[in-house]
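Quick start: what a row looks like.
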Amino acid sequence: MYLAIDVGGTKTLLAIFSQDGEILTSKKIHTDPDYGKFLASIKEVITNEFRQFQINSCCCAIPGTVDRQNGLGLRFGNLDWQKVPIRHDISQLIGGGQTLVEHDAALGGLSEALLLKGRYRRVLYIAPGTGIGVAFIINGRIDSDLADNEAGHMVVLEQNNYFYTWEDLASGRALLAKYGELASEIKDSNIWASFAQDFARGLQPLLATLQPDIVVLGAAIGARLHYFSGALQEEIKKRQNKMVAIPPIAQAKKPEEAVVYGCYEFIKQNN
């Protein structure tokens, strides 16, 4: 059996996969900000709720920056953890089995790219949640050069003579701060049109630089693409270089579970 762990800033999702990719059971827990207590909560789930499963391999998806060679989580976004040996620690919890660590957006992008069944070679995956996760998948493999690129922080935009990061203006956190509502609660077309304008401003330089064949939007905002798809296309047309084709923009097929499915696919690719 394979264990997938999607570590989020407030919640962590654990899922047990069969070898053919079926989720046999899953459990969502609070992400304790204390790293030691977080590991204890993972151990409790594995020991008690997953005790009937023999875990052979695990993939742990984390936000922030990954040292893949040494299995370290260097930074964790909204979590105050630095340089933690998460590969070693999770491996110990599953009895020393193979453990992989990868960026959460990269794994979400991998899953969604593979669901496209080879129809697109260059897939740009964007997950606007608390921040904005970005991944680039080429021929069904994670592009490691972009895997830790915190585009939500690195793309800087000017507005009203002030400079903001992309995620300051176009993430779920930004929507909540501006309108007092979660993305899942917003249905006002004017709000989504304003969001599309801010989102397109950060997306445009990625389109020009990477020239993807398709853009896939995941996370909670991606699941609501139907509210702002038209407005987003219009905003991109206003800004896009006429020499660069505008790719299709699609909603993720598994917007809330893409990361754990990506964990499964990553284990399969690395076995």
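That is the whole record. Residues 189-210 form the longest helix (22 residues). The CA atoms of residues 169 and 198 lie 6 Å apart.
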